[in-house]
Amino acid sequence: MALVELENVFKIYQVGDEEIRALDDVSLKIESGEFISIIGPSGSGKSTLMHLLGCLDTPTRGKITLDGIEIQNASSVELAAIRNRKIGFVFQSFNLLPKLNVAQNVEVPMIYAGVSAKERKERTMEALKKVDLENRAKHRPMQLSGGQQQRVAIARALINQPRIIFADEPTGNLDTITGDNILNLFRELSHQGSTIVLVTHNPEIAAVTPRRIEIRDGKISFSEDDRLAGTSLNK
Amino acid sequence: MILWNSIQVGFKQIWSHKFRSLLTMLGITLGVASLVAMAAIVNGMENGMKEGLIATGGLDKVIINDQSVPVWQEHLAQMAPGKTMQDVYALKNNATLLKRISPEIRASVRYVSRGDNRSRPSEVCGVTEDALFINQHEIAYGRWFTQMDSETAAPVCVIGSQIRDELFGDPNVIGEEIIPLGETIRLGEQLFTIVGMFQHYESEMARTERLAQKAALAKQPKVTRAFTNAVSQGSQSRTWGRPRGKGGGWAFDRKNSTIYIPLKTALIRFRMAENSLKIDDIDIQVKNYEEFEAALQQARNILMITHNRIEDFTFSTQETQSETIEQSIKNTRMSGTLIAIIALIVGGIGVMNIMLASISERIREIGLRKAMGATDAAVFIQIIIESVVLSTLGGLMGVAFSYGLVYIIQNVSTSNAPIIKPDALIFSMIFATIIGLIAGLYPALRAAKLDPIQALRFE
Lengths: 235, 459
Fold this sequence. Notes:
The complex is a heterodimer of chains A (235) and B (459).
Chain A: E1 4-15, E2 18-30, E3 35-39, H1 46-53, E4 61-66, E5 69-70, H2 76-86, E6 87-90, H3 102-113, H4 117-130, H5 146-158, E7 164-168, H6 176-191, E8 195-200, H7 203-206, E9 211-216, E10 219-225
Parallel strand pairs in A: 3-8, 3-9, 6-7, 7-8
Antiparallel strand pairs in A: 1-2, 1-4, 4-5, 9-10
Chain B: H1 2-16, H2 18-55, E1 61-66, H3 85-94, E2 98-106, E3 112-114, E4 117-119, E5 123-127, H4 129-134, E6 139-142, H5 147-151, E7 156-159, H6 161-167, H7 171-174, E8 184-187, E9 190-198, H8 204-219, H9 222-238, H10 250-256, E10 258-262, H11 263-270, E11 281-286, H12 292-306, E12 313-317, H13 318-361, H14 363-371, H15 376-412, H16 422-448, H17 452-457
Parallel strand pairs in B: 5-10, 7-9
Antiparallel strand pairs in B: 1-11, 1-12, 2-5, 2-11, 3-4, 3-8, 6-9, 7-10, 8-9
Helix pairs in contact in B: 1-15, 2-10, 2-13, 2-15, 2-16, 3-12, 13-15, 13-16, 15-16
């Protein structure tokens, strides 16, 4: 069974008399361990798709299954628990809490998961080691470079060993070289078995992932999978 | 665990906005301080009044007061005799249930003087020996008036210790006790000889304070002592109003500045021009407190005869006085509590305002926490706890502040030292915490209801 499965998902916003179909009959499957990018210009519905996949929102119609749990009817408390245990987010603007130091930032998801202080400390150091920042644990986010901040955010996203990581324009605020480093880190994590969904408007960045999905006007307009190259199944 | 973490986050949040938090807490601080200080002042008042009640006589003391004649006797008002010696004699001879009857004639003497020293007595009263017992006076030096003094209306007096302090010198200041027996002082313009002096009346607290002061004074070298005398005497004469009482309460001050003269002396030397035998006051004391009501009825019946059945008198018992005192304390406490609580509520509004500002500044943070798995409840609790931490810290500051306030009041006011009781502290702290809880409710609800997507997009 697929890790994430969307079946005829609609997300419709009512603005005045007008009906805006942010997602229009989308069906999609993401297998465990996949490295996939969702491409699309702004307003295409890719953010809406990511919000639904990330359990930040529920669809108007259709069925979404994540790790065997149907989330279209889940309560807000259940959604919060799913976000906490099964999902990691990485944002364009890093979204680190400026008042907390690096280690404390990484710790936050574990607090909501009810992990003991001792275990939190161990796992934080482990995660920081993974992103090569163990010697910056006591620094404030403001004292780090953009690339370092994003690596802290990635460590935070990984901390609860989520089933899937969503990265929303993770390189958008970084220069090309740093951005490449971050993408390499994602690739490495993918090799280690993480499921990663990269959301971007930049086809060049999307090119690093084996599978790409393009969204336009709320529909999947194009789907490509390097692993199936040569077959005529896609397109 | 989330709770502990929320408390930490709360403290951090307060610490990172030190000045803003301080200003916010100030509202709660002042509220708590005024609540605690108010309670302390009322406690002090209550103590002073209770002590005063005891100092001025026991429960078995009754004062016969004038009253305007009842409505149905208004046509007889002109014939109302008022209190006279007739009443005293009638009561003495017939009121078997009364132990003592003390007639008093007040001499209208504003100042007593000796040389350049002047003193203002609380009362200059012509009395009989019964007054000593009813008003619980104790003669420490000298003697009470003899029958000869009374019969000849001799110009003799027994004075309270404060009169001595002001006319001859305070033993705490000059270092030795002067016992002015046989000395002559002026009551108004008339010369009187001091034949006795009452003991110094003071509260338990004032006594310990005075003894400590005395011990400290004894340790100082002689020269310095003379110097401090000069300073303290000088400053005393310069203070406005009466100098601070040494008895530790208005009732003791009053009692210490009493001057008694024989009843007949008061009549002949201060009332002769009026050609009237009216008595200002009759205090009576019942023999047996169990027969209190019966004794009053008996006295009433006798007085009705001497007053030609005109009811122009009434009895004022210590009980009614203590009821009046209790009522006035209750009123003071009520209004004080109300004002303090309003101050606290205003402080709470300040907390709510700052919490709202705080969450609208942290919308992204709240969205992020939600994305990372914080439930609505967790966000709600975090904001509530921040609010409670803020108001509780404010309350603690208020407690410290109230001690300062009480210290100042103790040094400024003349009597009735305020007393801080633990129950006032606990009550005001609980109240401050509840205010913080209530003030945090709406901001916390707003934060909890934030949509994570919107919040994350918020710039």
